Predict the structure.
Amino acid sequence: MRDGYEGTGPGAITPDGCAVEFYSRLPVGDEPDVISAAIPSGARILELGSGVGRVTHALLQRGYTVTAVDESADMLERVHGARTICSPIEDLDLGETFDVVMLASFLVHNGDLGTRRRMLQACARHLAEDGCVLIQREGENYHSDLPRERVDPSGFTVRITSAGPVENGVHTVRAEYEFPDAVWTQTFRTRPLTKEQFEEALAEAGLRVDRYLTQDRIWVRAVRAVRAATGVPEVPGVPGMPVGE
């Protein structure tokens, strides 16, 4: 287990404290709708941090081609119908590019600055010239609206019981996931980012925000920074919020 990370509950636990069985039970939300609205039909997608394929499978059903990457072989065993690659995201170098690179699950908030930089560099390295990166950020009240609880319609409860500073801008977060027949917990580290800090992190990797896809700014579409100067047109008909709003 990584330092500062812990997971408890039935079944396999990944080095960052994720419970494989919990994520196998977790239903897909509105992520496929947000993603589909922001990318061309039939796009080739590189999904970084796919986990058990919760979103992967929904994208495959919509006609996308997905390469699913995760550092956990236990997670990838649950992925079906996609090409799978077991690797840490920050070390990935496939020697090919994709129409869309996805970095979801708040991975851009990795507590280690070096790891975050390498993750974003991996996004840029695998991005086609006219492609886009879709990133999922933490909500603005993620570390302040605590404790909080959400009861999912499918019958389980998610609790974020605490989040507090550890060192150098890093917070430790504890979550509980309760089902009628099982309970899992996860403790992990994350680095809160303001909008400005997030955009600065993208710029370090040669990326820029194209638009925020959701009102809460959690989902973001980014492109190569150099496209702003070359006049390459954006994908037409993609809804979202202008960067300045």
Observations:
- The two ends are 41 Å apart (CA to CA).
- The helical segments are 20-25, 31-38, 54-61, 73-76, 113-125, 195-204, 227-230.
